[in-house]
């Protein structure tokens, strides 16, 4: 039996359902179930690890943290932000880094992303999770702070 894993909100902002994300890969939950966050518009917003684990993928606009038990969470900072080529993102960790939930991984400027015509919405996805594996601890419309429980993963 796998222990319950609490997934923390990586950013502060308003909770959205994945169906509200403008990217069809996320909105159709093709990479997995989860929630999204419309982040507070801050010039130096910090993005924290949602779980304890190892950073197995790290790009300026997205990262994956894998728990010791194999479960992995994707945090994607904005939609179409890969087109920025890393501009406006500062990495505070590296691939292979062991992180604790709440540790800063990236800082960025969601207001600059929005000003550039891209969505700063951040999908938070349980990779390869079954549709019923995640339970919402925050609901669409709620406002959460970074570090608050967002999802539980059975």
Write the layout of secondary structure elements.
Blueprint: E1 5-8, E2 13-17, H1 24-27, E3 34-39, E4 45-48, E5 53-59, E6 62-66, E7 72-76, E8 89-91, E9 98-99, E10 104-108, H2 110-115, E11 122-127, E12 134-136, E13 143-144, E14 149-153
Antiparallel strand pairs: 1-14, 2-3, 2-13, 3-11, 4-10, 5-6, 5-9, 6-7, 7-11, 8-10, 12-14
Q: Which oligomeric state applies?
A: single chain
Q: What is the N-to-C order of secondary-structure elements (H for helix, E for strand)?
A: EEHEEEEEEEEHEEEE
- Structural class by secondary-structure content: mainly beta
Number of extended strands: 14
Summarize model confidence as the mean pLDDT.
95
What is the CA-atom radius of gyration, in angstroms? 14 Å
Separation of the first and last Cα atoms: 9 Å
Beta-strand proportion: 35-45%
Instruction: Please give the count of helices.
Output: 2
Cα shape:
globular
Kindly report the spatial arrangement of strands forming the biggest sheet. 9-5-6-7-11-3-2-13
> What profile does the largest beta sheet have?
8 strands, antiparallel
Uncertain spans: none
